Amino acid sequence: MEKQELAPHVAEISRVLGNKVSEEQIAKELDTYLNLYRVSLETAKRSVVRKLGGDPNALSKGVQKKLSELAGAEQSVDLLVKVLSANRKDIEQNGEVKTLIYGLMADESGSMAYTAWDADRFQLERGQVLLVRNAYTKEWNGKPQLNLGTRATIETQPQDAVKLPEGMDVPIYGPTTAKVSDLQEGMNSVTITVKVLQVETRKIETQEGPKTVYSGTVADETGRVQFSSWHDFNLIKDEVVQIRGGYVRSWRGIPQLNFGERADVQRVKGHFPADVDLSKPRPRSIGELEMVGGAYDVVVAGVVVDVKKGSGLIQRCPQCNRLVQNKLCRLHGKVEGQYDLRIKAVVDDGAGAITAVLNKEITEALVGITLEQAIKDAREAMDPEVVKEKVEERLLAKPIEVRGNVISDDYGLMMIVSEARMFVPEVRGEAANLLSELEGSQ
Ligand SMILES: [Zn+2]
Q1: d(C-alpha 220, C-alpha 265), whole Å
Q2: How far is the centre of ligand 1, averaged over its atoms, from the C-alpha of 319 (Å)?
Q3: Are strands 129-140 and 110-116 parallel, antiparallel or unpaired?
Q4: Which of 303, 316, 396 shows the shortest CA–CA distance to 359?
């Protein structure tokens, strides 16, 4: 075979090997198998991949089909398709949460439902044109369905490589219908029905001149979320709207609903949960919050399982408010620290844990100590740790309810607490069960 003819096969082997081996080396190996050992191209390719540490099964079998030709039992098939929709969904598998993508793909022969089993490996987006290799099909509800599993690969192709049948195209809005509690960073094409609780306008100077931002709070029965829009949809407090084409981006770590002029906002008449007071924060499980990574103004109830270092009487830099340790600010060096009270408590509700950060006012009320008293106690004992001990005595192993905004950082979920209260669990209440479970497990 001529070098030119081999080029696509060399490129394919390179892809299968994760582009870790030079094409020059691959070409040399391939040449050896073909011209010295005189094996078939198929065998040569598989041998080279195996020799260089790759998985020969990841090689294309070279069977490219149209969607209409798929029967539902293909074990390895290549397709040239356009992604009509790409929706993300979290599933639990062997105790671990993983994200998959599902939706519709189409080519000139029609469209088909698909599932890509790993959202990290397949960065699928609506409107992409792709060469999909090594997909497999299965029958689902009497129809073949396309699956992208561990062996599949995708390559982006030019937009005009796929011509869809007349009338078929990427829909402007995806079918993701969400509730407020589902919203998480990165979601696109969101359809959601909410009540407008509050709306305000702000003028902002941009490079293209002054612009108006519309923002506020909307809610459904699962919670509240802040929104922001650059387009005037004439939203009015207390009306119920269906927003299509929204997207979710984090703002200061909290998922926020955004929708622009390409979104569609319709007034919804009729029933909306009137029995739920939408202006109140909703109780949430910490496990749920871990899945979405943050939330606006929620309540969690659990047991304080740890009071972290840096709780109690602390000192802050008078210039930047950072924690001062050993009279040193990380930014300003040696400074005269100002006393403050705070608590970083780990609250566990049985489904997960969250670090709740309580400011001076909440700490004072909860622990029953003033900043002045804490300073006095620390001076008398000549040890600021006595204040932390007092906090531990009051909080550790006790049930607590905290309210606030939840964000995630490198250490997991964190709540900036706006309200906190200790509570006495009902004898048969869940918190009591949890408490006894926690005590039993120690
Ligand atoms: Zn400082």
Answers
A1: 16
A2: 5
A3: unpaired
A4: 316
